[in-house]
Amino acid sequence: MRPGKGSRPRTKNRPTHADASTGMVVSVDRGRWGCALDGDPDRIIVCMRARELGRTPIVVGDEVSVVGDRSGKTDTLARIVRVADRRTVLRRTADDTDPYERIVVANADQLLIVTALADPPPRTGFVERALAAAYVGGLTPVLCLTKSDLADPAEFTAAFADLDLPVILAGVADPLAAAQSTLAGKVTALIGHSGVGKSTLVNRLVPEADRATSAVSAVGKGRHTSTQSLALPLPADEGGWVIDTPGIRSFGLAHVSPDDVVQAFDDLRDAIDECPRGCTHLGPPADPECALDRLTGHAHRRAMAVRGLLASLSAAPTY
Ligand SMILES: Nc1nc2c(ncn2[C@@H]2O[C@H](COP(=O)(O)OP(=O)(O)OP(=O)(O)O)[C@@H](O)[C@H]2O)c(=O)[nH]1
Ligand SMILES: [Mg+2]
Ligand SMILES: [Zn+2]
Known about the structure:
This protein is α/β, with parallel strands linked by helices. It folds into three domains: 21-83, CATH 2.40.50.140; 89-244, P-loop containing nucleotide triphosphate hydrolases (Rossmann fold, 3-Layer(aba) Sandwich), CATH 3.40.50.300; 258-314. It has eight helices and 13 strands. The chain has a six-stranded mixed β-sheet. A five-stranded mixed β-barrel has the order 1-2-3-5-4. A two-stranded antiparallel ribbon has the order 6-7. α1 crosses α8 (297-314). The chain is globular. Magnesium ion (MG) is lined by residues 198-199, 211, 225-226, 246.
């Protein structure tokens, strides 16, 4: 052992932390994580990352083991000593500010793809990329349409009919019941372009949340109104969490292969075993032998819808 600064002997045996508590990460902010002990929204404490974890990423939704002062009193700081394996992941793309694809939400059950029917106009390509991110990350996607007072949803939703995608209307003119029952008891990540009404919806679902909406802060500097990902507890009678992800504009799909996307569909997974090696499942002319073309009936319609997703992934992304 080298002597010197901090010559405290280092033990090779990591502490076992037998007395650790389990928590869910609900917020991330510059080296501090908010954790709900036992997933209880009334027991949120502030934590740091234990030295032994190095730079292990810890994201909203992560299930963590926490030691130290867990009283939750002002100025106390507990320590996250372990991050559990993730059941699902949502990734965002590399961008100008960050060269890596990163996991931004862990363990969410659902991805609520929030799309305005007008102002801004809905974009099929965005929804398709969101769907692919959800399917490969293990989240169940739900298409959530806002601003139904401005335009009719029929035409836009028709594009996704064959994917058997759940669709709910959740604009300010729609009753909240559909959104509430979809989210009850689940952890749901919200995603959508700026201005589609995510914060407006969150504020209806969680009145105490008080998320800034652009109407409120329009006097500001014209930047996006919310920037930090945050898990907010839904009312206690139903339970569950909604995760607002304002910073995410696009999804990390660079690592996703055509096989990954198709294999997310139980009824199509086996079919592509029959495809020639390297098949991209786009069909003729690129893949004249693709086995998806030999399916019939419902499976065929779904396969063609999934092919639509693949085609949008292979095109240049539009955000
Ligand atoms: N007509 C109409 N306007 C809506 C509806 N939902 C939200 N808005 C308005 O749309 C604007 C943007 O809403 P926000 O909730 O701030 O949008 P956001 O998705 O949170 O935007 P960012 O935080 O920038 O990502 C606000 O002026 C809302 O009042 C709706 O259903 N109908
Ligand atoms: Mg917002
Ligand atoms: Zn194929």
